[in-house]
Amino acid sequence: MIRYRTGIDRRTGEILVGWPHVQQSIEVLMTTRPTEMVMLLDYGLDLIKHIGRGMHRGRVITLYRELVTAVHRWEPEYRIHRLYLVEMDRTGVLGLGTKGRYYPEGRFGNYDIFEPADGAFPLATSEGAA
To answer: CATH number of the domain that 107 lies in?
Structure first.
Protein backbone atom coordinates (compact mmCIF):
# COMPACT_ATOMS: atom_id res chain seq x y z
CA MET A 1 0.00 0.00 0.00
CA ILE A 2 1.40 3.38 -1.02
CA ARG A 3 1.71 5.91 1.81
CA TYR A 4 0.73 9.26 0.28
CA ARG A 5 1.59 12.44 2.12
CA THR A 6 -1.37 14.56 3.22
CA GLY A 7 -1.76 18.15 4.30
CA ILE A 8 -4.01 21.20 4.25
CA ASP A 9 -4.39 23.61 1.33
CA ARG A 10 -2.99 26.92 2.58
CA ARG A 11 -5.64 28.94 0.69
CA THR A 12 -8.87 26.91 0.95
CA GLY A 13 -8.32 24.70 4.00
CA GLU A 14 -9.19 21.58 2.02
CA ILE A 15 -7.27 18.33 2.46
CA LEU A 16 -4.48 17.70 -0.04
CA VAL A 17 -3.26 14.17 -0.76
CA GLY A 18 -0.29 13.09 -2.87
CA TRP A 19 0.91 15.18 -5.80
CA PRO A 20 -1.22 18.29 -5.01
CA HIS A 21 0.43 18.43 -1.57
CA VAL A 22 3.89 18.20 -3.15
CA GLN A 23 2.98 20.98 -5.61
CA GLN A 24 2.01 23.22 -2.70
CA SER A 25 5.27 22.36 -0.92
CA ILE A 26 7.29 23.35 -3.99
CA GLU A 27 5.36 26.63 -4.28
CA VAL A 28 6.09 27.36 -0.61
CA LEU A 29 9.76 26.57 -1.20
CA MET A 30 9.87 28.92 -4.20
CA THR A 31 8.15 31.80 -2.38
CA THR A 32 10.09 31.52 0.89
CA ARG A 33 13.29 33.52 1.08
CA PRO A 34 16.25 32.10 3.00
CA THR A 35 16.23 33.15 6.70
CA GLU A 36 12.41 33.58 6.73
CA MET A 37 11.67 30.21 8.31
CA VAL A 38 12.66 29.88 11.95
CA MET A 39 14.73 26.75 12.67
CA LEU A 40 15.29 26.24 8.91
CA LEU A 41 17.20 29.38 8.02
CA ASP A 42 18.64 27.90 4.82
CA TYR A 43 15.21 26.75 3.54
CA GLY A 44 13.84 28.57 0.51
CA LEU A 45 15.03 30.37 -2.60
CA ASP A 46 15.99 33.94 -3.30
CA LEU A 47 14.14 34.11 -6.62
CA ILE A 48 13.06 37.71 -6.06
CA LYS A 49 16.55 38.85 -7.07
CA HIS A 50 15.81 37.66 -10.63
CA ILE A 51 12.46 39.42 -11.03
CA GLY A 52 12.59 42.65 -13.01
CA ARG A 53 15.97 41.86 -14.50
CA GLY A 54 16.67 40.90 -18.07
CA MET A 55 16.06 37.22 -18.71
CA HIS A 56 19.11 36.35 -20.76
CA ARG A 57 20.52 32.85 -21.13
CA GLY A 58 22.92 33.08 -18.19
CA ARG A 59 20.25 34.32 -15.76
CA VAL A 60 17.77 31.65 -16.86
CA ILE A 61 20.37 28.92 -16.36
CA THR A 62 21.19 30.30 -12.90
CA LEU A 63 17.48 30.39 -12.05
CA TYR A 64 17.03 26.80 -13.20
CA ARG A 65 20.09 25.61 -11.27
CA GLU A 66 18.95 27.28 -8.04
CA LEU A 67 15.44 25.84 -8.33
CA VAL A 68 16.49 22.28 -9.17
CA THR A 69 19.07 22.27 -6.36
CA ALA A 70 16.52 23.51 -3.81
CA VAL A 71 13.75 21.12 -4.90
CA HIS A 72 16.09 18.14 -4.85
CA ARG A 73 17.33 19.15 -1.40
CA TRP A 74 14.01 19.94 0.28
CA GLU A 75 11.43 17.86 -1.61
CA PRO A 76 12.37 14.16 -1.64
CA GLU A 77 9.17 13.17 -3.44
CA TYR A 78 9.84 15.03 -6.70
CA ARG A 79 12.71 14.95 -9.17
CA ILE A 80 12.75 17.51 -11.96
CA HIS A 81 13.73 16.22 -15.39
CA ARG A 82 12.76 19.26 -17.47
CA LEU A 83 12.29 22.90 -16.55
CA TYR A 84 10.98 25.73 -18.74
CA LEU A 85 9.62 29.27 -18.45
CA VAL A 86 5.85 29.68 -18.82
CA GLU A 87 3.42 32.58 -18.78
CA MET A 88 1.03 32.02 -15.88
CA ASP A 89 -1.77 34.43 -16.86
CA ARG A 90 -2.82 37.17 -19.27
CA THR A 91 -0.87 39.86 -17.40
CA GLY A 92 2.42 38.17 -18.23
CA VAL A 93 3.25 36.80 -14.77
CA LEU A 94 6.24 34.56 -15.32
CA GLY A 95 6.36 31.07 -13.93
CA LEU A 96 8.32 27.87 -14.18
CA GLY A 97 6.93 24.71 -15.71
CA THR A 98 8.35 21.37 -14.67
CA LYS A 99 8.24 17.83 -15.92
CA GLY A 100 9.52 15.12 -13.67
CA ARG A 101 8.76 12.14 -11.51
CA TYR A 102 6.66 12.08 -8.36
CA TYR A 103 7.81 9.48 -5.82
CA PRO A 104 4.97 9.04 -3.26
CA GLU A 105 7.33 7.33 -0.79
CA GLY A 106 10.46 9.34 -1.57
CA ARG A 107 10.48 10.75 1.96
CA PHE A 108 11.12 7.18 3.16
CA GLY A 109 13.92 6.65 0.64
CA ASN A 110 11.75 4.44 -1.59
CA TYR A 111 12.28 5.48 -5.22
CA ASP A 112 10.87 2.27 -6.75
CA ILE A 113 7.32 3.67 -6.99
CA PHE A 114 6.88 6.72 -9.23
CA GLU A 115 4.56 8.40 -11.67
CA PRO A 116 5.12 11.20 -14.19
CA ALA A 117 4.15 14.61 -12.80
CA ASP A 118 4.08 18.06 -14.36
CA GLY A 119 3.66 21.36 -12.57
CA ALA A 120 3.59 25.11 -13.13
CA PHE A 121 4.75 27.41 -10.36
CA PRO A 122 4.62 31.23 -10.26
CA LEU A 123 7.87 33.11 -9.68
CA ALA A 124 5.89 35.67 -7.70
CA THR A 125 2.48 35.30 -6.08
CA SER A 126 -0.33 37.74 -6.83
CA GLU A 127 -0.58 38.31 -3.06
CA GLY A 128 2.75 40.12 -3.17
CA ALA A 129 1.98 42.15 -6.30
CA ALA A 130 1.26 45.84 -5.99
So the answer is: 3.10.450.40
